[in-house]
Specification:
By secondary structure, the chain is of the alpha+beta class. It has 14 helices and 16 strands. The protein has two domains: 247 residues, BirA Bifunctional Protein, domain 2 (2-Layer Sandwich), CATH 3.30.930.10; 83 residues, Rossmann fold (3-Layer(aba) Sandwich), CATH 3.40.50.800. The longest helix is centred in the N-terminal third of the chain and has 20 residues. The chain is elongated. The relative contact order is 0.12. It binds histidyl-adenosine monophosphate. The site of histidyl-adenosine monophosphate has 28 residues, from strand 6, strand 10, strand 11 and helix 11.
Amino acid sequence: MAEKFKAPRGTFDVLPEQSAQRERVHQAAREIFGLAGYRFIMTPSFEETSLFERGVGKSTDIVRKEMFTFEDKGGRSLTLRPEGTAPICRAYVEHGMHRLPQPVKLFYAGPFFRHERPQAGRYRQFNQIGAEAIGSDSPLVDVEVITLISDLIEELGVPGVELKLGSLGSLDARANYLEELKSHLRSRAEELSEDVRERIEINPLRAFDSDHEGTKAVMADAPLLLDHLSEEDAEHFEEVKSLLGAASVEFTIDPTLVRGLDYYTRTIFSFVCDRLGAQSEIGGGGRYDGLIEQLGGPATPAVGWAAGIERMLLALDEEVTSPGMDLFIALADLELRTKAVALAAELRHHGLAVEMDLAGRSMKGQFKQADRVGAAHVLILEPGGSASLRNMETGDQQTVDPKAVASLIRP
Ligand code: HAM
């Protein structure tokens, strides 16, 4: 026998019995985004590698270790998208969206790719849903996008979720603080993990995210960015906090919150769930006021987030059963199949969910199958043109004209 294949490491199949739950997430998200005026955007699954190098940042784990990069037949370096914000900003600039009324409010959903060590909640191909509002620095927009994800989590009923909020300040204002942090790290370099030590100069903030005991001890005494915000950035943050309060979104301030991408400025946030173990972040994001300009566009402030669909599903851990069928057509005789095919097509055109026997089963077998597919009614076609309709819940059965079935069972 030929060797069988398996899905690649860190990837998974979504089987039919798992898809109803996933569809529920998409549906809830579409509704919530639509009500707030966000419109769907889809970008390619791969982009030029340099978009991510420049957009996500060369010092990040994503760019240093996790990208699926390949050369196409023309020698161009391409990368399977590890995240969605840089591609959307690329599209914003490419299509001149700065000419539209601002902010441009977008949402997206689809697969993303990171070569990470697979574990529960961490995959090499995973799916995100996300929203981006581009073209305004108003704290109102920070609060609007945070409310979207908060509403989604609430609508789905994800338990045990907490919102952590922080601010990274604007790029210029952060520079002084970073020098202070670097000198703190340099002064105790021998206590740090190798990874953090290597990145003191290029990405000192990541030290706050380390699990390494020595590094944690050094960071316990580190200066905090929240204590060093410029007056404007501090005001912006205060406004975000007070508007979140007005929108009844609960949060806690985390002065050590940092994120894995370089583009963030000012507000950052993270929704964590206590049911998820090590990979506890359901979703997160923040402002990225410098990114569009960095990608060749006009200076344009923006804010957004992405949530991991698989992490939401893991946290929900619920069964969503697929909606059953309205009708199953059973045949007393195989000769009736032409009539059954025509009737099934006609009833489906009327919007009814209809299945019929496709396997030449006995009458008993057909009733079993009707049960399996969750049919509310079974129509038994008899030779000579007569038919009877059975209500599967009550067991009532009546002789019917097959042409009248739609009006008899329309739910
Ligand atoms: P991120 O924090 O890298 O942000 O990813 C967002 C979410 O995607 C995470 O909170 C997590 O739920 C999910 N996720 C990330 N990596 C994996 C993985 N390997 N397996 C399963 N789920 C994963 C971004 O991607 C930014 N683009 C978010 C953003 C949008 N910021 C501003 N706008």
